[in-house]
Amino acid sequence: MLGLSNRFSLITQSLLLSAVLGAMLSGCSDAPSEQTIAVKPTYVMTYAIKHDANQSLELTGTVKARKEIPVAFQVNGRIAVRAVEAGQLVKKGDVLYRLDPKDLTEALRVAEAGQAAAKASLDTASAELNRTQELIKKRFISEQASEQAQLKFNEAKANLDKANAQQQQAAHALSYAVIRASAAGIITDISAEPGQVVSAGQRLAALATIQNLEIEVQLPEQITPPTAGFVKVSANKIPLKLRSAAGSADSASLTRQARYQVVENSESLRLGQVLPVSLPLLSGSSDVQVPIAALDERGTQAQIWHIVDGKAQSAPVQVVAMDGDVATVKTDLANGTPVIALGTHLLTAGMAVQELKP
Known about the structure:
Layout lengths: L3 H24 L6 H6 L2 E3 L1 E3 L7 E10 L2 E4 L5 E6 L6 E2 L4 E5 L2 H36 L5 H33 L2 E3 L4 E4 L8 E2 L6 E5 L3 E8 L7 E6 L2 E10 L9 E8 L11 E7 L6 E5 L11 E6 L2 E6 L1 E6 L2 E5 L7 E3 L12 E3 L3
Parallel strand pairs: 1-23
Antiparallel strand pairs: 2-22, 3-12, 3-16, 4-11, 5-7, 5-10, 6-9, 7-8, 9-11, 12-15, 13-14, 13-16, 14-15, 17-21, 18-19, 20-21
Helix pairs in contact: 3-4
């Protein structure tokens, strides 16, 4: 492409010189007929676009787990034990963290004491209700006394139900003082240490499951995520399949995140690895380079011009990049299509043109 601009410059000068000489000669000759002007084509220089059928996007990706489960306590407390290290492989049921159980144990004792007191109150109210009912049968007391005894019994029973619930809640809280792995995986992102006071739900680490590994990549915003590719590990190429892609690009990085599923699990992959990824692009959507002068930006969208049956016809393009005298664009035109490389700002749809042969 380096010699392309010099070639265009020389041909442009030649075309201009021919135009001036033609104008001078026309002053000395009779005016051409309207029919001659209408059919006389304009000579244009063209450039054949080239799609690279083997074009691929080369970038780096990070090995991620399909699922990353946050590790957190369900109760407040002070961490007593951290039983794992970052990167450690754990099995389902393994202990990950423990809280200091002292406060939770005391809370359970208080709840159990309240439960016992409520049970005693219910027993007393039940006995009182039985005595009242016996006295009513003997007509020693009025019905009003029976109603009062029944109300006290109902209240005592409700208090016992409440105390039972509080005892169960305290017992559950004590069991929550230990976090166990919910599945086999690898511990990542440890952010809490023994002695630290944490609240319920606060993230302490993450448990990355290892059953389904994925590769996370950041694609340029103008690239449609390819449906397949491969990741390179040493001399091996592990196939990838697109699982998900962000609907829009990040406004800061102008990239779009995509996740590719590892089709064949490999023991050589490790969570957190940064590896080269190759994503083949479809030839119909690959980028092509054209001379910067081939771009016509007179309308609302950039376009290039090609020749159809001896007439100029425009085709919309998406400009990807501009570098010096070369523009990188996306186009639906077929491979090898000659596009007009100079003077596109003078062209109109249906204008008669003829390709200038070298």
